[in-house]
Specification:
It contains 12 helices and 9 strands. By secondary structure, it is an alpha/beta fold. The structure holds S-adenosylmethionine.
Length: about 260
């Protein structure tokens, strides 16, 4: 059964066998692993993952692809008890409930049009996730890994990802590894949620608020960008120059600022 790739679901399917093997090696699936895959598509990663003997849950939005997987019997071939199809929007789904109890690995060649909100969504289950391996647009991986010396690349995604996870960019993947070929380069990243967070934050909601507000007006000084939530005296008391801009602040600086609220 042929499937016509749907642009609106970000369907660029992996076709390069060497790249597929390299990604699966990075995931390192084990027999006693529980793995959740977002967007299995036509099963390029799904099949080799199943071959490892792991418990695998896949979350796919496209009903036709779910039907195709059923028809092609991926399900039956791999022992119905180990393979679980979930037709759902990964942005809405409770990933912890999908995986069941215990730790799980979260992986996926993610649809690029929703990758940033999806990354933020995954942080809700960080306590249950042992590691995440994702394919993303190269620039998104660069943003996740950026620090305050990286200028415009550094932003809310960098700070929040590095607060929750160790970030390891692994390797690049060129457009010709996919069908249809995307217009952008891709990269694989490993995110390992911290058991002990790297900085102490009193209130994570406020922390996110400060980071969002600071980068929301990144060309303004912190004094102006944060005017509605924190006054200049408190910025100074946190040890930060109120004339600085968001992209000059480290993760520790943002934590210090948020802890003044
Ligand atoms: N894993 C396959 C591969 O590597 O060839 C497909 C990857 S393709 C880039 C992204 C997949 O995510 C597609 O199968 C698409 O239908 C699915 N998808 C798109 N939006 C989704 C969403 N909101 N929730 C779950 N799956 C989604």
């Amino acid at each position: 059964m042929r499937h016509t790739p749907r642009k609106r679901f970000g369907q660029n399917f992996l076709v390069d066998q060497q790249v597929i093997e390299k990604i699966v090696a990075s995931i390192d699936p084990r027999k006693d692993d529980t793995i959740v895959e977002i967007g299995p598509g036509q099963g390029a990663l799904t099949r080799p993952l199943l071959a490892s003997g792991c418990q695998l849950h896949v979350v796919e939005i496209d009903r036709d692809l779910i039907a195709k997987m059923r028809l092609e019997n991926i399900h039956e071939q791999h022992h119905e008890k180990r393979f679980h199809l979930h037709q759902a929007d990964a942005l809405q789904v409770d990933l912890g409930a999908v995986a069941g109890t215990g730790e799980f690995k979260l992986i996926g060649n993610l649809p690029y049009n929703i990758s940033t909100p999806l990354i933020f969504h995954t942080f809700n289950w960080r306590a249950q996730i042992s590691e995440m391996v994702f394919m993303l647009q190269k620039e998104v991986v660069a943003r996740m890994a950026a620090t305050s010396s990286d200028g415009k690349t550094y932003g809310r995604l960098s700070v929040m990802t590095q607060y929750y996870c160790k970030v390891e960019p692994l390797f690049m993947v060129p457009p010709d590894a996919f069908f249809p070929a995307p217009k952008v380069d891709s990269a694989i990243v490993r995110l390992t949620p911290y058991k002990d967070l790297p900085v102490a934050v009193d209130n994570e909601v406020r922390f996110d608020e400060v980071v969002k507000a600071a980068f929301g007006m990144r060309r303004k000084t912190l004094r102006n960008a944060l005017k509605a939530i924190i006054n200049t005296e408190k910025i100074i008391a946190a040890g930060i120059d109120p004339a600085a801009r968001a992209e000059q602040l480290s993760l520790e600086d943002f934590a210090a600022l948020a802890n003044m609220l």
